[in-house]
Amino acid sequence: MASQTQGIQQLLIAEKKAAEKVQEARKKKARRLKQAKDEATAEIERFRNERERAFREYESKHMGSMDTIKESIERETQARLELMSKSVGTAKEIVIKDLLTRVICDVQPKLHTNFKLA
């Protein structure tokens, strides 16, 4: 019976050591996963920054800066407004006369053909 309890004791000790090793392996795996996640996050951030920088370079090279675009739009708008003002100034009198000739009618009062004097 003593050998039986001694065997059980050895099994319990071995089971305890195995459980400790499994626990340590789980902790090690969790640390490796966290480290891999941190490395992946850093790599993603580096890639994002590099692509953002490349896009900014492409944008400034091909499209110009936002100030340049804004200035060109404002110049174009001013030119169009001036052209419209000149056009209105030259055609204003002609349009008013045309409207007045179309609106003012020369009405000739006449009796209707079906009207009979009583």
UniProtKB/TrEMBL annotation:
Family indicated by similarity: Belongs to the V-ATPase G subunit family.
Annotated protein name in UniProt: V-type proton ATPase subunit G
Coiled coil segments of this chain: 8-57
Keyword Coiled coil applies: yes
GO BP annotations, alphabetical order: synaptic vesicle lumen acidification
Function: Subunit of the V1 complex of vacuolar(H+)-ATPase (V-ATPase), a multisubunit enzyme composed of a peripheral complex (V1) that hydrolyzes ATP and a membrane integral complex (V0) that translocates protons. V-ATPase is responsible for acidifying and maintaining the pH of intracellular compartments and in some cell types, is targeted to the plasma membrane, where it is responsible for acidifying the extracellular environment.
Subunit structure: V-ATPase is a heteromultimeric enzyme made up of two complexes: the ATP-hydrolytic V1 complex and the proton translocation V0 complex.
The organism's place on the tree of life at top rank: Eukaryota
PANTHER family from the UniProt entry: V-TYPE PROTON ATPASE SUBUNIT G (PTHR12713:SF11), VACUOLAR ATP SYNTHASE SUBUNIT G (PTHR12713)
Keyword Ion transport: yes
Keywords, in A-Z order: Coiled coil, Hydrogen ion transport, Ion transport, Transport
InterPro entries xref list: V-ATPase_G (IPR005124)
Organism taxonomic ancestry: Eukaryota, Metazoa, Ecdysozoa, Arthropoda, Chelicerata
GO cellular component terms given for this protein: presynapse; vacuolar proton-transporting V-type ATPase, V1 domain
First and last residue of the signal peptide: none
Organism this protein belongs to: Blomia tropicalis (Mite)
